Amino acid sequence: MSLLSLPDVPGWEGLFWLAATLALYGFFLRLRRHFNDSGLLQPLLWVSALLIAVLLIGDIPLSSYQLGGNWMVVILGLSTVSIGVPIYDNLPIIRQAVGAFFVAMLLGSVSAVGTALVMAYFLQLDAMIFATLATKSITSPLAFGVSNEIGGLAALAMGVVIITGNFAVLIGPKLFAMTGISDIRAQGLAYGVAAHGIGTAEAMRRSALMGSFAGLSMGLNGVLTSLVLPVAFSLS
Q1: Closest Cα partner for 231 from 134, 121, 103?
Q2: SS3 readout for 102-168
Q3: Is the pLDDT at 150 greater than 80, yes or no?
Q4: Among candidate residues 130, 123, 201, the one with its CA nearest the CA of residue 160
Q5: Distance separating alpha carbons of residues 9 and 24, to the nearest angstrom
Q6: Which residue pairs from 200-205 have beta carbons closer than 8 angstroms and sit at least 24 positions apart in sequence?
């Protein structure tokens, strides 16, 4: 879907699902702030779980939800492009740390694939599952395509990406506190590499500077992983 081929204008049913999704997200966002930004109240996680439960219990086809839900994809695309604004605003600060940024990003990219390899080895997972797990730290659209190309399960890859992002946002603050990482640039980079779009949204919510490092690392990590993984799997 592109901005040149927008979804149909939603009718009352589509408007209901679109409004319900936004209202639930707003509710859990306020609830999270009330409980001191607890990671356990990550809005995306709870809104998704509630909507899935409603669709399953009510035996409502996904196509009905998508009458309004397709417009969320358009909104997501616009919000993704908007990440470029804080990156541009913070270019002088990014340039000052460009060396450390690229070293940390490369290490993070290697670690993301490396942890998948370790899990596959110790859990004795087959090659298809390993290929799926290898894409866990790149954003969903890229994970879908790359997973298909290297022999993974694209549908499962989408689920793994979402779980990875939410888990990283959940443990991120505690992990930063335990390791003494207080630099918001480093925190942003970690969110972007490990938790892709979900982590970038969390970083952006905390500060524009953190969000700029998260957005840039998410994009570069996604491109790098998308280029390297197919080559690495073809040689293995």
Answers
A1: 134
A2: HHHHHHHHHHHHHHHHHHHHHCCCCHHHHHHHCCCCCCHHHHHHHHHHCCCCHHHHHHHHHHHHHHH
A3: yes
A4: 130
A5: 22
A6: 200/83, 201/44, 202/169, 202/172, 204/83, 204/86
Helix axes 43-57, 62-82, angle to 10 degrees: 160
Which of helix, strand or coil describes residue 3? coil
- Residues 68-95 have a mean pLDDT of 82
The better pLDDT of the pair 62, 76 is held by 62
pLDDT computed for residue 153 by the predictor: 82
Cα atoms in the 13 Å half-sphere on the side-chain side of 215: 23
Closest CA to 210 of 235, 183, 171, 232: 183
Residue 3 confidence (pLDDT) above 60 = no
Residue with tokens 């670690």, as numbered in its chain: 111
Residue 215, Cα to own-chain centre: how many angstroms? 10
Residue 2 pLDDT greater than 50, yes or no: no
Q: What is the pLDDT of residue 63?
A: 83
Q: How far apart are CA 65 and CA 111, in angstroms?
A: 37
Q: 224: which residues sit within 8 A by CB, 6+ positions away?
A: 105, 106, 109
pLDDT in tens, 167-194: 888 888 889 999 999 999 999 999 999 8
Q: Which of 43, 14, 41, 46 is nearest to 26 (CA)?
A: 43
